[in-house]
Write a structure and sequence with these properties.
Length: about 300
């Protein structure tokens, strides 16, 4: 996919002998700035690094086969996106929850706050993967906007399997979220009856009134309306995911557990992303250790008679 989607369109028309470092450097810079197919900015630094690894490996093989004399990828510098300050909604969460019932999809945001699911995972969630009796959500797929495989720049929404084993996970659901999902399912059943044959039942938990997948951009618009009603400064849908992880860590949940619930491939990703919470956790650990070390002084021995 990296070759077909990102590499070939950018440098596929350049002959190997004519390939120079500046060609690859431009490729990396363009991808970090505006490489996403949905038009929502650039690729992650990790994805750009993977593109570099593919190119470096291919050029190394070309050297072995005598096609080129040097690996031009070694003369490039992979750009890093400036790390934006992470926004969490811990203080504003109560105000947000108070206005959720003003929107048809209010339950979707409550589920997000209670599970930390990614937007694409939330919109691809099916009832068959929600166990309301056991209180568990099984995350299996994601709704993703991808470019159509033709000469146009058109995109379309597709359900796709998750990228890593860690992303496919089970998340326990808080009781308040279970109750909200039950009410949501009842309302959805009423919508099915009203729509009749026009309803396209894909089994989605969150969908349009006719059963179709919801465009993530429309969910973002709904979220922005809710923020405005609650008097909360602008934030992204992803901020609810950050809020979920931050609350868990603030409650002294083990980072390994948070990693598994968030679907991070490496615990280092969890620790790096939520490093702002770590000092508080360390201080709490030191305080607990202090309680163990502090003992009452033994009573003074009485003099011998």
């Amino acid at each position: 996919m990296l070759i077909r989607v990102h590499i070939k369109p950018a440098i596929g028309n350049i002959k190997l002998a004519k390939l120079h470092p500046h060609h690859l450097q431009k490729l990396y810079n363009d991808k970090i700035e505006n490489g996403r197919h949905d038009g929502r900015g650039g690729l992650s630094a990790r994805t750009v690094e993977l593109i570099h690894i593919v190119l470096h490996s291919a050029l190394s093989q070309a050297i072995k086969e005598g096609l080129v004399v040097r690996n031009v990828s070694e003369a490039t510098k992979r750009p890093r996106r400036e790390k934006k300050e992470m926004r969490v909604l811990t203080e504003e969460q109560t105000r947000l929850q108070a206005v959720l019932n003003t929107e048809r999809l209010g339950t979707a945001f409550l589920v997000d706050l209670g599970t930390g699911m990614r937007c694409g995972e939330l919109l691809a969630l099916k009832w068959e993967n929600v166990d309301l009796n056991e209180g568990v959500i099984r995350v299996q797929q994601s709704l993703t906007r991808i470019r159509v495989e033709d000469s146009s720049l058109k995109t379309e929404l597709r359900f796709q399997p998750l990228k890593t084993v860690k992303s496919r996970r089970s998340i326990p659901i808080p009781q308040s979220v279970i109750a909200a999902l039950k009410s949501h399912k009842s309302r959805q059943n009423q919508e099915k009856l009203k729509a009749g044959a026009a309803y396209n039942d894909l089994g989605l938990v969150f969908c349009t009134e006719l059963g179709q997948p919801i465009d993530p951009r429309n969910l973002t618009r709904t979220f922005n309306r809710l923020l405005e009603r609650a008097g909360i400064p602008k934030a992204t849908l992803h901020s609810m995911r950050h809020s979920y992880a931050t609350r868990l860590l603030e409650m002294n949940e083990h980072p390994k557990v948070v990693q598994e619930l968030m679907g991070h491939s490496q615990i280092s990703m969890t620790l790096d992303t939520y490093s702002h919470v770590m000092p508080e956790i360390k201080q709490a650990a030191a305080a607990k250790l202090d309680d163990l070390l502090i003992t009452k002084s033994p009573p003074a021995e009485e003099g011998h008679k």
